[in-house]
Design brief:
By secondary structure, this protein is mainly alpha-helical. The chain is 75% helix and 2% strand. It has 2 domains: 266 residues, MetI-like fold (Orthogonal Bundle); 235 residues, MetI-like (MetI-like fold). One of its GO terms (cellular component) is plasma membrane.
């Protein structure tokens, strides 16, 4: 290792032999250390890429092969298919536009305004993003009174619910870049006589364009692959590609048609990921050209209108949540806890094979398994990314790790049904199958939250530890682990919440005798009866409460610096 002193690269004490130690022996130690690090990187890469290959690439490739093998031409020439595509893209575009309009005031408040309780504000706007889509659908079903789908209110509810789910993506992503913009450019424009609106459109908005492009691409991706929201609110009339794949697989057993639809969806997902990657690179370039501005001030003048708009958005985020909680304790006969008491049973007509509390325990256990799996895979992946010296190779590996976050969970779960039957033993009945699927979604989040912290650690600390005789593993343990511990704990909590509410792949893979809480809610909604409906609302409220508590815990653990592109 070398350190720069007054512009010159000079050997550090870690690169020089100790007094009395032969140079050949020291050179051999350095070669051995490099070989050891290379071997550890190769081993970690083998584990991570092997897991991705077995539980992601193979199932997705099988779906592609099944779609190309038959039924694709018939599906692509069907008018109904393109109606699905049009509705999927249309509702995603409308939801994205609404999320963008609602998220911008919040982004401004997070970046530029000093308000009390900003940590609580961050937690409040993050809760909708990590809520299970099924719970969000139930909340808006209660708010709008859409029970059977097919009505105008159901369509409006789908757009509102998807926007509600993704407002925090806009607020946190755009707000992160807004924090790093230099105020002096805006102040110079004001000194030349530009009004506040002119300053925003001519100076601030062009600077924010990279983050806006990235946020729009990600939100559009999430809205186009929304599953639980459309399934609950759309009924049998409004369907997207995601719900149609599910219905064709589960109810119609049309595997070739579902695979052909998966191909269309996969093409849209890849396009959205490419746009997001380009926008992220532009955003990172923009940050290199501007100094960070972490100062926040009390609102003044026209800023009060923005703060008021942000307050209305926060209130709008709380209304569906409050409505769901009220609905869980209200019946035709008045206030009642019948739904919560019914969680100790299996529902009217024995809809479930286990009680609601057992389903909740299954969710906690499955989410815990998915969390430790994703932490193991994520930390190994981070070690690989940090160990790779070539930037191009590191970007390829990073893109491969992020791909499961964008590909539909329904497609992955469908792929499991097609491929895992060929593995030795009956893997499809293993209790670890659902955690494997959930870990695919959580691992990219772990990498995104922890990798920037590891890369930000001053390498001089590692050099100092090595100078004192610490081995490479001892250096990692004494330097990297303490500094990255908080971000690892925050990633674990955030991943646990995401796994807790995962529904797409879990709906395919959960066994009838071991359903998770989201799967149990879907089964209760599929069967008529007042008790089943009350039990479903109570289960939604329980899941939402656990999610909110976990998000508050994550907010307390998260790193105190604002990072761009948290999502």
């Amino acid at each position: 290792m070398r350190m720069a002193i007054f512009g010159r690269a000079v050997p550090s004490s870690a690169d020089t032999p100790r007094p009395g130690e032969p140079r050949n022996r020291w050179a051999g130690k350095r070669r051995t250390a490099r070989w050891g690090r290379s071997a550890a990187t190769v081993a970690a890469a083998t584990i991570v890429l092997g897991f991705l290959g077995l539980f992601f690439a193979w199932p997705v490739a099988a779906i592609i092969g099944l779609g190309l093998g038959g039924g694709v031409s018939e599906t692509l020439t069907n008018v109904r298919t393109w109606d699905l595509v049009a509705f999927t893209l249309g509702q995603a575009a409308a939801s994205t536009a609404l999320a963008l309009v609602a998220g911008m005031p919040l982004a401004y408040v997070l970046a530029r305004v000093a308000v009390p309780g900003k940590a609580l504000l961050r937690a409040v706007i993050t809760v909708p993003f990590v809520l299970p889509t099924l719970v969000v659908g139930m909340a808006f079903r209660t708010l709008l009174g859409t029970g059977d789908g097919g009505s105008t209110s159901a369509l409006f509810g789908i757009v509102l619910a998807n926007a509600f789910f993704n407002v925090s993506v806009v607020a946190r992503t755009v707000g992160g870049l807004w924090t790093h913009l230099d105020r002096r450019t805006e102040d110079a424009a004001r000194s030349l006589g530009a009004c506040g609106l002119r300053v925003f459109t001519a100076v601030t908005l062009p600077a924010l364009r990279p983050a806006l492009g990235s946020a729009v691409a990600v939100v559009f991706l999430f809205c186009s692959t929304s599953f639980g929201v459309v399934l609950v609110l759309g009924g049998g009339t409004y369907r997207t590609l995601e719900t149609e794949i599910y219905l064709r697989t589960v109810r119609l057993l049309d595997l070739s048609g579902a695979a052909a639809l998966s191909l269309l969806q996969l093409a849209a997902v890849v396009a959205a990921l490419v746009i997001a990657a380009v926008a992220r690179r532009r955003r990172e370039t923009a940050l290199q050209l501007r100094s960070a501005d972490d100062t926040a001030r009390r609102p003044r003048g026209a800023e009060w209108f923005v703060v008021s708009a942000a307050g209305m958005v926060v209130l709008g985020l709380l209304v569906p949540i409050a409505g769901l909680l009220i609905r869980s304790v209200s019946t035709r006969d008045g206030w009642s806890l019948a739904g919560y008491r019914a969680l100790s049973g299996t529902g009217s007509g024995a809809v479930l094979e286990v009680s609601g509390w057992e389903a909740a325990w299954n969710s906690l256990r499955t989410a815990a398994d998915a969390t430790w799996m994703s932490l193991l895979l994520g930390l190994l992946a981070i070690a690989v990314l940090v160990g790779i010296r070539r930037r191009a190779a590191a970007e390829v590996v990073d893109a491969a790790l992020m791909l499961p976050l964008g590909v539909s969970a329904v497609t992955v779960g469908f792929g499991y049904l097609v491929t895992l039957q060929f593995l030795p033993g009956d893997v499809r009945t293993s209790p670890l199958l659902v955690p494997f699927a959930q870990a695919l979604v959580v691992t990219p989040l772990v990498v995104r939250m922890v990798l920037p912290v590891v890369r930000a650690i001053d390498d001089r600390l590692r050099q100092a530890a090595a100078t004192l005789g610490a081995s490479p593993w001892r250096v990692r343990w004494e330097i990297d682990v303490p500094l990255a511990a908080r971000s690892v704990l925050a990633a674990a909590g955030f991943g646990f919440v995401v796994a807790l509410g995962e529904f797409g792949a879990t709906s395919f893979l959960a066994r009838p005798e071991a359903p998770t809480l989201p799967v149990a809610i879907a089964r209760l909604l599929a069967r008529p009866g007042e008790l089943n409906l009350q039990m479903a609302y109570a289960a939604c409220a329980l899941l939402m409460l656990v999610t909110a508590l976990a998000v508050l815990a994550v907010e307390r653990l998260r790193v105190r610096t604002e990072t761009v592109g948290e999502f």
